[in-house]
Predict the structure.
Amino acid sequence: MILEFRRFQREHYPEYVSWFSDPELNRQLGPLDNDWLEAVLSEPDSAGITWAVFRGAELIAVVETIFDPQNQLPTVISAIAVKPPLRRQGIGTTVLQQILSLHNSKGIGEHVAYVSIHNSGGRRCVEKAGFVPVTTEPDERGYIKLYHQ
């Protein structure tokens, strides 16, 4: 699958926000609002990048990453959203594998993801991409930590 990764831009927002009419996506990652958009657009590359992922001309996924400015902590995959009609087709795992490969080519080899215990699809996605659980019990917010190296 040939994918193109672009830094998320304002023009991607109308399409992306429309995905949140899907109850499952909204429950896991929503609600999405203009404060989120302004934070993403103003974030320096050194702090993280939100990627708009395209297959041809179609926006198919959005991935949020957070970097440690001191390069001492793993990079965080803070969110991965797949366009709702395209879920459960392996797109999320493919997108995540390509992000890991891109990061690896830049010397970023450690990643963590925090997945809600109620998000079984998200957990399957990151595990298929090679993340392994660090914790078996959720933290105080209900998240399991998974690690990839």
